[in-house]
Amino acid sequence: MNVDWAIAVSVFLVFIGIGMASYWGLFEADSNAIGLSLDSANDKVLGFLRADSWTTPVRYDSGSSGPEVLYLDFTWPEGTKDSTRILDSSLPLSCMFQGDRLYFEANVEPGDNEFLMTFANVSEPLACGSFLETAGANRTLPLASEKSVMVSQSRIDQMLGTEYTQFRQSLGITRNMRIEIDSGTTTAYGPSPPQYTNTYVRETHSAILGTGQPITIRVMVW
Predict the structure, then answer these.
(1) CA distance 22 to 20
(2) What is the Cα–Cα distance from 79 to 120, expressed in whole angstroms?
(3) pTM above the 0.90 mark?
(4) Are strands 214-221 and 200-207 parallel, antiparallel or unpaired?
(5) Neighbouring C-beta atoms of residue 4, cutoff 10 Å
(6) Which residues have C-beta within 8 Å of that of residue 206, sequence separation ≥ 6?
(7) How many beta carbons lie within 10 A of that of residue 168, not counting itself?
(8) How far apart are CA 25 and CA 13, in angstroms?
(9) How far apart are CA 73 and CA 154, in angstroms?
(10) How wide is the angle at C-alpha 97 spanned by C-alphas 99 and 127, nearest 5°?
(11) pLDDT tens track for 22-51
């Protein structure tokens, strides 16, 4: 009798163990699947929002002070020219193109003056659309460009202007997701995760193209 009881208890515990192992195995498999989906969704969203960006220091040696029209000759990577800006202490200067020659107007000081030219692989209206008098313009020297990856505000606007399901399908994302963009204020895109649902989050810190303003992008899937 006691032997039968002990055998029954042992068999019961074995089945309990098998059941728990199966449950945790399924739970772990589902967690791994969601984790992989998060990695994929995060990569696709960042791939859409970010763009290759270049910064090029520009130097000019002046013998006087005051406003001057300056120029530089440069070869831009394909698809980047329209986004070009010339900055002086982070402030954009008036500029215009004539072929592959960029003219800009700046207040200079005697000696070495340094400006920053930025451009990126984004589609946007021509940034250097001013009209400048080019007679007597002085040549500047562009130095080596530095490449980085930054978030494009125009692509954020494009995403926010696209219907959620359409945007998700265009990136080939099958799971439900939500994107939060924090650049001082938080903008949310997509539905909120249901209550009591395991939500997986990936957070990326970057900067906004053209301004350098810090930005945080959160991608959530469930």
Answers:
(1) 5
(2) 8
(3) no
(4) antiparallel
(5) 8
(6) 50, 149, 150, 151, 214, 215, 216, 217
(7) 20
(8) 18
(9) 27
(10) 135
(11) 444 544 545 566 777 899 999 999 999 999
